[in-house]
Design brief:
The complex is a heterodimer of chains A (857) and B (170). With 857 residues, chain A is of the alpha+beta class. Chain A has 25 helices and 27 strands. Chain B folds into two domains: 76 residues, Ubiquitin-like (UB roll) (Roll); 67 residues, Orthogonal Bundle (DNA polymerase, domain 1), CATH 1.10.150. The chains are: A alpha+beta (857), B alpha+beta (170).
Amino acid sequence: MSSATTDRQSSGLGFVGQRVKRVEDERFLVGEGKFIADLNHEGMLHAAFARSPFAHAKINSIDVAAASRLPGVVKVFTGAELNAVTNPFIPFFTVGGLYTPLYSCMSDDRVRHIGDPVALVVAESRYIAEDALELIEVDYEDLEAIGSIDAALKPGRTQLWEKADGNVLGEFTDTFGDVDEAFNQADRVITKTFDCPRQSNQPMETRGIAVVVDPTTGHLDIHSTSQAPHFKKWAIAAMLVKDSTAASLAKFARNSERRSAFLAAAKDFVAANKEKMAQQDNSGMVSQLKKDPSTMLHQLRMGAGLLAADDYPTVMAADIGGAFGSKGPVAREDVAVAAAASELGRSVQWIEDRVENLLDGGQAREERFTMSVAVDNDGMLKGLRVDAVLDQGAYTGFPVAPALIALLWKVYFPGPYNLDAFEITSKIVTTNKGRVVPYRGPWANETWARERMLDLVAAELGLTPVEIRSRNVMREGVSMPDAFITGPTIDETMSVAKTFDRALEMIDFDQLKRDKADAEGRGHRLGLGIASYHEAAPGPPNFFSSVQPGTDLFVYEDGRAEIGTDGTIRMFTSQSPHGQSHQTTYKQVAADEFGVKMEDVEIVWGDTDRTQFSFLGTGGSRGGPMGGGVMRMTARELRQQVEKVAADMLEASVDDIDIIDGNIHVAGVPSRGISYADVAGKVAADRNITDEPAFMEAMKYEGVGNGGWSVATHVAWVDIDLETGEVEIPRYLVVEDCGPIINPGVVDGQVRGGVAQGIGAVFYERTHYDDNANLMSTTYMDYLVPTAMEIPNIEIEHMETLTEGENDARGTGEGGMIGAPAALTNAVSDALGVQVTEQYLPPYRLLELAGVIEPEK
Amino acid sequence: MSQPSVSAAPGETIAVNLQVNGTSHSLEVDPRRSLADVIREDVGLTGTHLGCEHGVCGACTVLADGEPSRACLMLAVQADGVEITTIEGLATDAGMHPVQQAMHDAMSFQCAFCSPGFLMSTVALLRDNPEPTEAEIREELSGNLCRCTGYQSIVDGVETAVQLMGGKSS
């Protein structure tokens, strides 16, 4: 076996820490998974979108008559028809200095990117719906398109959004420490610009939504490939509100039951969150309203509509075929399909195809960073200035907007290194491109730019990449501050230096010299790159308030545990798994807490009627620490309730109760034990209940302790063939510390999958728009997802820094992708002896950098 | 593999006989429908997945008369009389197929949307080459895309399957 997995047991004697095989496999590996396209609802109609072939154009007219007449077509909605019955997307994340253009679920008078939806066909089959698309006539009038960051920054070009200042939607600056002083005092200042082109998440399953309409009540059951079903439920409910604000408020006023329920809930919420609410930063909303006061009117109308509504959609997420961030947002298509089903009173589904997914299923990371580093000649870093630009495309992602990515840069950019001062200015620009969504470590380019810059600074100072990192990395007991200069608290889990030191031990530098010489002999070049990072997964309690005061209102994790009257243990999570093996790992955690077998625990997820609200759902590497944490804590609490009843039944003290393999007994007397069913049955009989759980515990979990950093050092070896530009990765090493591991098989998979996406980003994948914003990569023949031939075996070394916390697991979902582009581009720079300043390095570019071929243009 | 031998006017259907996992299905199909759509919708076996519908990702791979084939690029009418094996046809009453068991043991997949294609490709690979090298495995599976795993666990799964099926360990 070539696997680097070890069957290690990290902690305890139960399931946690073991490489337990996945329970999900029992359905997936025999073809019995239930993905969105597999659900086969009775009487379902099929939707297809007519999309713009122009990057930027006015719509003069649209004619859907011929399409509507096609047999099998139920209805063709124009953009204007659906926009008339829906509310627009209004900004969810705002920052002072930013304007976010409002937009509707469809485009009716203007299109702003290739693939912009202009009409929706609903038909008896997808084949017929797609036939009808061919019959829709749209008269477009071409406009100048903005196809690059440079074009967007240029004044005087055609504007995408009338109310914006040019195509820059906002600019905001944050300063930490005395930056001028740091730059004046330092021996020198080194400045460089780094560019990352557009990439795409590309899960193997595309997006999809199936809206099932109850013909009598009109209730919508929305099946969705959603990482965050609860947010989608509220967003769709809000966007389908039709009544005016006044009408909704009048309705609400008449409904005394709803009124008192709402007021009680609001009172509880305010009481629980008074402090956080007071800290909320409203400067973003002020900037927004200055540009577009209608934002408030839409907000009031949707808010009032939600207050008045008696019925909200139910959103359900079954098995999901990957997402990597792209299925977190609420998309325009979600709202359009829900509105179409609601208008028709009939069930409608839309399954995105791959071309659509490449057009607008989620794009990311087209960013530019100009970094200035103030540094002394001995390599000690003093100050950092960053000018960052993010190309958000045409329509602002919702709810997680690109502004949040910039806010995360603000907190993360200095990395695990000590600095006296830091300043960052971020610009958000709009171009005629697809929507930017979160992609596995949405802020990850700060690590890429910083780690690349460190090598560049080292080279300029005559130091090695190892030396500059060794001198500046935060080291426990030596140079570890109590908090980052950008705010968040630091504790012993900030163990980057430990992973860095271990990585160095695992590199044979003498062998590297020999390998380099050998490569040169073969007409190749070999190089090594190192990169380190830290991630708040989940981060200290003040992490999100450092990102933006008040955002921590949204980042707790709810969970619930129940024991039925028959003794069945059910754990309810608000996470929405899409490949992370939640079902397996949560069973491990709960089974250990209850003292039962894994098969005795049922995990319930994905149904908003059965699980508690969660803004984020699954995202942010929180499934282990936060989702797993609330499973552990609710199970622990419930076990105590069970032990109390069992102690009475066994006529013993609670302290003497032991539970092994589901046998609840007095310690040392297992033969006289009782079962969970016995205890639950007793409670049911005493309380005379049948249809409610015998035991129930719900909890709002905010994490424990002061730490929660997940860290790693990546080391990449690359071998470049100077004849073909082909790259091989003879070795790739990850030394990571995510604390005690719940399931090493799962963690290894997450790390490797992330690194694979990083390899794809650097050498193969590019969402390629030309200067006129025409998309050149609309199939998998153009957008190159790496195969088993391109991804090497990845060596993983686990380190486990433990804290006093009861739930010490840290997240690991995003890290692989955060570290890999930096380590790989550093390795390429080392191999070729040039300082690479771009992230995308396909064979032709490597040959240009190596001087083998002349650069284009 | 048979070519469609009859032509059909728009709206007309053609009778086909599909042999799927040993069961015969006599169906009237619109001649333009893909084999994948007919397997999923008419036969009702949804284990075969559609990832790209243009023949690159390989998630829809089935065995057609034993040969790994893209069910998204093949028309149902081309499969008239062809023996089709899908992921649902691998396990028996005795349990999982050794390739399925091995992929489970190796924790090969995450979201597993791509798994039907990898499983079918692997079954064909090990039939033709019971003891492949790692390089051969990687090359043979390079027609299937996985976005979650970085492939190492899938390669491990194939190597585990070699052992379970009586070949040498690598």
